[in-house]
Design goal:
This protein is α+β, with helices and mostly antiparallel strands and 560 residues long. 32% of the residues lie in helices and 19% in strands. Helix 5 packs antiparallel against helix 6, helix 5 runs antiparallel to helix 12 and helix 7 packs parallel to helix 9. Bound molecules: siroheme (SRM) and iron/sulfur cluster.
Length: 560
């Protein structure tokens, strides 16, 4: 039987190790866009072609080309950057982006609205600050997440170094990025990609490192996860997880979110070997025909977790030990000041949906710039799109605190609900958005807060997440309440996550408009207020009282 490879496979194979015709596409002044092939290859360099969806129809009716611009996503393992780097990130956004910085759900930042001729100077300038965008997107390993844990400073430092090493180890080897953007020398000999090969992976690949009891990285939603195991504060090894992922397609029962399987425990020194073995196994076994079924989660479902583990052990030439018992407490961030084991202070700031900009209501961007101007520690982006000003010496705390107050960066009145909320970007930049998310969620939360107050439940803090489509960029399928865009102003409402990221949720009501969402939640809160057990979480209550069934095996349970 003649099996047709996905067209993306041909584009990758013929790209001469990710060069394509990007150089020519960038110089073409007749259009704000890239050639169709280069628009695929550009992702491996960290940027996406987009157009302003707000003006799309109007421009079409006037026979104008769409308003093209680019989104660039940096590679920032563990979300850590220095204050100096923050100043550069800020300044570049104003000069070469749209003036805002977007913190992402994978602990890095994005620039939106970059016009074509600004791409090269922008990439050069972030690289001058020792930040790159290689593998920010594309069919390779993406930004490696790491729990930003400000309390256990020494353990964090050690685990964070592993996150960095994994990120480096899984970088593509091609010199294309340096050649095209940094004017690096052209290689004479043909190139090799020992890890990825010339077709790279069948699909994107995501890795995270968690430090229990915090599951802010949502470790079970990653293709590959390492759970740090510490004894007496010292790292002894990792539990290895594989096969998590969120992306689904409405109405397609062959797609589903999945939590990663626990494969076993490995000693610290085996981390890179195992990471490479998982990547190459997925390279060789992953589906290169249907991109919809090409993530590692489908490879594992096809092979079976036990067989996958055996193949992995053969490839890595080791045997997994039984996993250590771990307990995760929560997926969210812990706000405010905490002192680390190194006696330095850390301040976690709530950044609504990760959007950093100055506007008529906020001087957030200026405030962070002022802090970066005097701060001697680092900045840590959290997997919940928030920001930690980390490593503040006791004597510098008052000055930072004064700036926080001056720019109004810490608002104690923010509700527990909102503090546990996440929304993806969606309109106007995301080409996949079916409904609003970041621009709409804050107003919807205002109304949900009023409902909670009506039921005297203002202290309730369910993990609540909204996305503009079922791709799942804000990890809505592990939320206690998930709202997933179905069409303009319409959302599916899902219930059932456990607040710790260890249980998937499931469709409760379909295709709701705002009134429908509020009526549904009102009824749920009424029941919860009357019948919940002390300290019971909202979704646990929904399952116990039979409102929704828990998802055990997503292949059969998720769509039922
Ligand atoms: Fe995502 C595609 C934004 C985290 C699953 N994601 C996109 C694109 C690039 C749209 C596109 O295909 O052109 C979005 C760009 C919007 C814009 O205008 O900026 C986009 N994803 C984001 C970010 C910025 C959301 C945010 O609000 O923070 C996150 C950037 C993370 C990063 O720094 O690397 C982001 N995306 C995620 C996550 C969460 C995670 O990784 O922890 C997921 C679910 C986990 C997973 O991968 O399974 C996620 N994004 C997707 C998918 C579905 C993949 C799938 O397996 O089906 C797509 C679509 C695709 O790949 O075809 C997608
Ligand atoms: Fe775009 Fe969908 Fe991701 Fe939201 S979830 S950013 S709408 S791809």
């Amino acid at each position: 039987m003649d099996i047709q490879l996905n067209p993306n496979e041909i584009i990758k194979a013929e790209s001469n190790f990710l060069r394509g015709t990007l150089k020519q596409s960038i110089q073409d002044e007749l259009t704000g866009a890239l050639s169709a092939e280069d628009a695929q290859i550009s992702k491996f360099h960290g940027f996406y072609e987009q157009d302003d969806r707000d003006s799309r129809l109007l421009r079409q009716s006037r026979l104008l080309e769409p308003d093209f611009s680019f989104m660039l996503r940096a590679r920032l393992p563990g979300g850590v950057c220095s204050a100096r780097q923050w100043l550069a990130i800020d300044s570049i956004s104003k000069r070469l982006g749209n003036g805002s910085i977007r913190l992402t759900t994978r602990q890095t930042f994005q620039y939106h609205g970059i016009i074509k001729r600004h791409l090269k100077p922008l990439i050069q300038q972030i690289n001058q600050s020792m930040i790159d965008s290689i593998g920010g997107c594309g069919d390779v390993n993406r930004n490696v997440m790491c729990n930003p844990n400000p309390q256990q400073s020494e353990l964090h430092a050690e685990v964070y170094q592993w996150a960095r090493r994994i990120s480096e180890q899984l970088l593509p080897q091609t010199r294309a990025y340096h050649e095209i953007w940094l004017d690096g020398e052209k290689l004479e000999q043909p190139e090799q990609e020992e890890l990825y090969g010339s077709n790279y992976l069948p699909r994107k690949f995501k890795t995270a490192v968690a430090i229990p009891p915090y599951n802010d990285v949502d470790i079970y939603t990653n293709d590959l996860g390492f759970v740090a195991i510490a004894e007496h504060g010292k790292l002894v090894g990792f539990n290895v997880l594989a096969g998590g992922g969120m992306g689904t397609t409405h109405g397609d029962r062959s797609t589903f979110p999945r939590l990663a399987d626990e494969l076993g425990f490995i000693a610290v020194e085996n981390v890179l070997k195992v990471a490479e073995a998982v990547v190459t196994l997925q390279r060789d076994e992953g589906n290169r025909v249907s991109r919809r079924h090409a993530r590692l989660k489908y490879t594992i479902e096809r092979l079976g977790a036990e067989r996958f583990k055996q193949l992995l052990e053969q490839r890595a030439q080791l045997q997994f030990k039984p996993p250590h018992a771990v307990t995760f407490k929560h997926q969210g961030d812990r706000y405010g000041w905490v002192q680390g084991s190194d006696m330095r202070w850390n301040l976690t700031l709530f950044i609504e949906n990760g959007r950093i900009e100055d506007n008529q209501n906020s001087t957030l961007m200026s405030g962070l710039r002022a802090i970066a101007g005097i701060h001697q520690g680092d900045f840590r982006i959290t997997p919940n799109q928030n920001l930690i000003i980390a490593g503040i010496a006791e004597e510098h705390k008052p000055a930072i605190q004064a700036l926080v107050a001056q720019f109004g960066l810490c608002d104690d009145s923010i509700s527990p609900l909102r503090r546990n909320s996440l929304a993806c970007v969606a309109f106007p930049t995301c080409p996949q958005a079916m409904a609003e998310a970041e621009r709409y969620f804050p107003q919807l939360l205002d109304q949900i807060e009023q409902l909670l107050a009506k039921h005297q439940l203002s202290q309730l803090d369910p993990v609540i997440r909204m996305t503009g489509c079922p791709n799942g960029c804000a990890r809505p399928f592990v939320a206690e309440i998930g709202l997933v865009g179905k069409g303009p102003g319409r959302y599916n409402l899902l219930l059932g996550g456990d607040g710790r990221g260890q249980r998937l949720n499931k469709l409760y009501r379909e295709n709701l408009n705002e009134a429908g969402i509020l009526t549904t939640l009102d009824a749920l809160f009424t029941q919860f207020a009357q019948h919940a057990l002390p300290d019971e979480r909202l979704a646990d209550f929904a399952i116990r009282s039979g409102l929704i069934r828990a998802v055990v095996n997503p292949v059969v349970d998720f769509h039922e």
